[in-house]
């Protein structure tokens, strides 16, 4: 979206997609390592997580900490390829990444904190391309991403809700309960609306909105079909939500491709 707004050459998005792809892989992995370090004792009591390496003792906390150091070093290596504005913006996300695993112990909204961490790229990606954040576009995009995360991670959390009650863990799955479907429908509508608004402010064309429309249809399909009391169904719904992000991406890519062809 930043490359579309600034009409940058193809090499710009390709470069930053590569960097951010690697950075996302490394930092998501670091988040998982931190999560497993926080939860190694809790994981032993949950059927889905009791075979994780820290929970079983296959990996020691010291080994996990050393591995985390390697992950964060690799992430820093990616971050230093960006401009100083982006380096500071990226570094500021570490606090949210670090506290997220602890939130399930103190609030029913850990999925919201996850959304704040996972969608930082909505701002960081823009600043990497443009040198600064266009807040008018990026804030609604970021907020739309947070709503999307609340949808897919609440579905994910329904897999563990029985174990969570026993272990004293909190989540939006437990908070929403029987109201999950209407609440997630409202969050999906909010996500789609905010992303559409971001596209409007960025001057996007029909392909972008077509992609957002397909994303909305995918979210509706997931929420219609998911049985929130079935772990396999929740897992399928969680994965299905990812395809909504794919369609938004394809819409933005299509708009950028049309723009590049018109300029050539």
Automatic annotation (TrEMBL):
Record field: catalytic activity: an all-trans-polyprenyl diphosphate + 4-hydroxybenzoate = a 4-hydroxy-3-(all-trans-polyprenyl)benzoate + diphosphate
EC number per UniProt: 2.5.1.39
GO biological processes: isoprenoid biosynthetic process; ubiquinone biosynthetic process
Keywords carried by this UniProt record: Isoprene biosynthesis, Membrane, Mitochondrion, Mitochondrion inner membrane, Transferase, Transmembrane, Transmembrane helix, Ubiquinone biosynthesis
Pfam families: UbiA
Annotated metabolic or biological route of this protein: Cofactor biosynthesis; ubiquinone biosynthesis
GO molecular function: 4-hydroxybenzoate polyprenyltransferase activity
Enzyme class per UniProt: transferase
Residue spans crossing the bilayer: 16-38, 59-78, 112-133, 139-157, 236-259
Subcellular localization, as worded in the UniProt entry: Mitochondrion inner membrane
Cofactors (names): Mg(2+)
Protein topology in the membrane: Multi-pass membrane protein
GO CC terms in record: mitochondrial inner membrane
InterPro entries registered for this protein in UniProt: HB_polyprenyltransferase-like, Prenyltransferase, UbiA_prenyltransferase, UbiA_prenylTrfase_CS, UbiA_sf
Role description: Catalyzes the prenylation of para-hydroxybenzoate (PHB) with an all-trans polyprenyl group. Mediates the second step in the final reaction sequence of coenzyme Q (CoQ) biosynthesis, which is the condensation of the polyisoprenoid side chain with PHB, generating the first membrane-bound Q intermediate.
Similarity section: Belongs to the UbiA prenyltransferase family.
NCBIfam families: ubiA_proteo (TIGR01474)
Alphabetized HAMAP family for the sequence: UbiA
Protein name: 4-hydroxybenzoate polyprenyltransferase, mitochondrial
Organism annotation: Trametes pubescens (White-rot fungus)
Lineage: Eukaryota, Fungi, Dikarya, Basidiomycota, Agaricomycotina
């Amino acid at each position: 979206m930043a490359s579309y707004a600034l009409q940058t050459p193809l090499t710009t998005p390709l470069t930053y997609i590569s960097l951010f792809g690697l950075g996302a892989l490394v930092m998501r992995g670091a988040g998982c390592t931190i999560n497993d370090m926080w939860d190694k004792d809790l994981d032993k009591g949950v059927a889905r997580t009791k075979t994780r390496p820290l929970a079983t003792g296959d990996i020691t906390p010291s080994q996990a900490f050393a591995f985390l150091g390697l992950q964060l070093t690799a992430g820093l290596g990616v971050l230093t390829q960006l401009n100083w504005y982006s380096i500071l913006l990226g570094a500021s996300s570490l606090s949210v990444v670090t506290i997220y695993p602890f939130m399930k112990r103190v609030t029913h909204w850990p999925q919201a904190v996850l959304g704040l961490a996972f969608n930082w790229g909505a701002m960081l990606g823009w600043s990497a391309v443009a040198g600064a954040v266009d807040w008018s576009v990026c804030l609604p995009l970021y907020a739309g991403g947070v709503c999307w995360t609340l949808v897919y991670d609440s579905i994910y959390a329904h897999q563990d809700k029985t174990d969570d009650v026993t272990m004293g863990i909190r989540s939006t799955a437990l908070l929403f309960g029987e109201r999950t479907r209407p609440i997630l429908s409202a969050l999906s509508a909010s996500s789609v609306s905010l992303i559409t608004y971001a596209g409007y402010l960025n001057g996007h064309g029909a392909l972008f909105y077509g992609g957002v429309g397909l994303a909305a249809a995918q979210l509706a399909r997931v929420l219609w079909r998911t049985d929130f009391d079935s772990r396999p169904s929740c897992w399928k719904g969680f994965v299905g939500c990812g395809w909504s992000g794919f369609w938004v991406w394809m819409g933005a890519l299509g708009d950028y491709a049309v723009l590049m062809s018109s300029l050539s």
